[in-house]
Amino acid sequence: MNDDPRGALVQQGNIMRIDNALVEDTSCLDNSSGSIEVSYSVPEANNMTSIQTIRLNLTGNTVILDSFGQNMCICCIQPGMWVSAIFSARMTRSIPPQSNAFLIIVQGMSQVPSVTTTDRVIFVDVRNNMLLTGNPWNINSQTRFVVSDSTPITNRAGRPVKLSALRPGQLVRITHANFQTASIPPQTTAYSIQIL
Question: Which of 145, 148, 143 has its CA nearest to residue 108?
Fold first, then answer.
């Protein structure tokens, strides 16, 4: 785990900071409140690190910026994004611990190593923002992709299209995270989708 890009938790007076935390889960209630669960590294003995998580509560008072310094909405933060966070040193003793976030800077998804897969669409779930590719008769060859609102989807000409434009049988090139869940079929985050 020595080459893990996650940053460590640092305390500075009454505030805590994590640079380069990975968003593991999000909850967006009404774009004025929600929470994100982020993971960070913790140095251990023998030059090893472990990964821990913390839930950061977001309110209308939480400043959320993109990598260009522009304001972002609470609901725009998606699992798989990398963020820097400044939050209160007062935390709950729950698992994972919770704290109120003051500032979240979304660094995007580009810091995550990515992989490109070219495969056929099996199923498109617009309601849940999911895409399934692979062989429809072999579940072991299938992959489920989570498609966020910020995932660019383009047609053959390179023009933007919606997820609903994808149809079973179409050949697509998907750039996605190089990690996936251990479920069957495995699930990962799509960074970009192009119809071929």
Answer: 148
